[in-house]
Amino acid sequence: MARILGGITTSHIPAVGNAIANELQDDPYWKPFFAGYPKVHDWLADTKPDIVINIYNDHGLGFFLDKMPTFAIGAAHEYRNEDEGWGIPQLDPFPGAPEMSWHIIEGMVEDEFDITSCQELAVDHGFVVPMQLFWPGAPHHPDMPRAIPISANTVQHPIPTLNRALNFGKSLRRAVESFPEDLKVVVLGTGGLSHQLDGERAGFINKEFDRYCMDKIVHDPEALTKISRHELVRQAGAQGTEFLMWMMMRGALGDDVTEVTRNYHIPISNTGAGTMLLECGG
Ligand code: DHB
Ligand code: FE
Known about the structure:
Elements: E1 3-10, H1 14-21, H2 31-34, H3 38-47, E2 51-56, E3 71-74, E4 78-79, E5 94-95, H4 98-110, E6 116-118, H5 125-134, E7 146-152, H6 162-177, E8 184-190, H7 207-219, H8 221-224, H9 229-236, H10 243-251, E9 257-268, E10 271-280
Parallel strand pairs: 1-8, 2-7, 2-8, 3-6
Antiparallel strand pairs: 1-10, 3-7, 4-5, 9-10
The structure holds 3,4-dihydroxybenzoic acid and fe (iii) ion.
């Protein structure tokens, strides 16, 4: 049976892609941000997952406002990265795991989640920047797992509630655990934390709220389901809705988790940048 080993979160700021391309990891601006990753690298080197389920939010590359799936799951043999105009290098395609993708889609639709299945899906910075952070050189890192992208709508309202996001993760866990092959799975929740890129509050970051979310998500994610979508936008900024991805990831980990590492640094570009590694098992 497939097994979820743990979950990892990170912000997915495009400027990070540029910092990686220009090898700025030790630059004083970037150093406190990149300091959050070596412990994650050690854990991945020890555990060597076969599959990475990358829960991210597409920003207009794979889907656009004209057609916006609430929840989409990739079922392709590979996922291409394309130029979004951020000036960051395009990465080579990421190999997929379509057998497990279809198993998850079938299980979750049976579980009454409405899923858009994607046999072709271009992946944006929300997907590739976290991959580069966790597997430097991605997709050419020697331990690069095969990927299953899951995108949720955080841009075109109405977006899912935090409760729906957590329940999505719980259903995802059931689907993964019923996959008959003995595969080790890691789940990423990317995006966030607080940020607002445009409008009157452009540049808004809420350190207290970010810290609260990072604390609660470990052992009491249910408390976060009480936050309404309006309150989330108010507290975390218009793009802080990307915290939905973290909740989807958390739901997939089950009740007992151990926090292995966390890092929080502000600002990186316009964003409160948070990184966490939660291992399954108490
Ligand atoms: C930034 C953050 C994001 O989540 C994003 O998708 C684009 C830009 C930023 O802080 O610059
Ligand atoms: Fe984003």
